[in-house]
Amino acid sequence: MKRPSVYLIESSSRQDLAQMFMRFQEYYESPEFKGKTFSIDEFVHWYTQKHKAFTYTRDWYGFNIPASVLQPFRDGQFDPLTTKERNLLKLCEKADTNSYIIGVTPSAEYFKETVKHEFVHGAFHVDRFYRDEVKACLLNNNVKEIVTGLKKMGYHEDVFADEANAYVLIEPETIQEFASISNTKRLREDLRTIFQKHFGFSILDIKVQELLGRVEHVLI
C-alpha cells in the first residue's frame, strides 16, 4: 500500500480523538444518521437515549472513514463545525477520494489491535481487488451470527463486510459473544491469507511501529 492512501491520526487523548471523529464517523456508518446532516446535540440526544448515558468517548477505541466523507463537512452542510472537526479537515486537506483516514490513541486499551483493525479498514477501502476477494470469502462462509452481532453493536448494513473482515481477522475475541473463536478459526486463516497475498506481509505478525511506517502518520 502506497502512502498517502491511508492517513493515521494519532492523538494522546482518547476523548479528543472521539470528539474530532464523531460526526464524520456517524455520518459514514451510523444506523440512525448515515448519510444525514445532523447537529452534535441531535447525536448526543440519540446516543444517550440508546445507551442510557452519553458514553461515546469511552465506547470506541479507534475510528475509520473514507476521505469522501469529508466533503459534506467541507461544503458547509455541518456548520457550525467544532474546532476539532475543522482541525481534522485541515490535517487531511490533501486526501483525495481514494484515501482513507483512521484515528487511534496509544493511551487506550488494545492499542496494537486497534491500529491493525483500523488499518485493515483502510486496506479494504483503497484496494478493490482485495475488497472483492474478501467479500467473496465471506459469501462462501456462514457469517450470519457475525452479521447479527454487528447489528447489535450498532453498525450500518453497508459496512457489515468491512467490519466482519476486521473483527474476525484482528480481534475475534471482541465478537465471540456472537460467533465463537473456534467457529471463526478457518475463516480467520482464509482472511489472513488473502491479506498477505495482496499486501505482502502478515497483518497479525507485523509490529505496530512498522505498520505506522506504511501510512501517512499524523500526530496531534
Blueprint (SSEs and pairs):
Layout: E1 6-10, H1 14-29, H2 40-51, H3 56-59, E2 63-66, H4 71-74, H5 83-91, E3 100-104, H6 111-126, H7 128-139, H8 144-153, H9 160-170, H10 181-199, H11 208-212, E4 216-219
Parallel strand pairs: 1-3, 1-4
Antiparallel strand pairs: 2-3
Helix pairs in contact: 1-5, 6-7, 6-9, 7-9, 7-10
| Major sheet characteristics | 4 strands, mixed
| Mean of all residue-level pLDDT scores | 92
Helix % is 40-55%
Domains, number: 1
Note the gap between the termini. Answer: 23 Å
- Beta content: 5-15%
Strand ordering within the main sheet:
2-3-1-4
Low-confidence stretches: none
Elements, N to C (H/E): EHHHEHHEHHHHHHE
Number of helices: 11
Number of beta strands: 4
Please identify the oligomeric state.
single chain
SS class? alpha/beta
Radius of gyration computed on alpha carbons: 17 Å
Shape label: globular
Written overview of the protein:
The protein has one domain (6-219). It starts with 5 loop residues before the first strand and ends with a strand. The protein has helices at residues 14-29, 40-51, 56-59, 71-74, 83-91, 111-126, 128-139, 144-153, 160-170, 181-199, 208-212; strands at 6-10, 63-66, 100-104, 216-219. The longest helix has 19 residues, at 181-199. It is an alpha/beta fold. Helix 6 (111-126) packs across helix 7 and helix 7 (128-139) runs antiparallel to helix 10. A four-stranded mixed sheet has the order 2-3-1-4, sandwiched between helices. It has eleven helices and four strands.
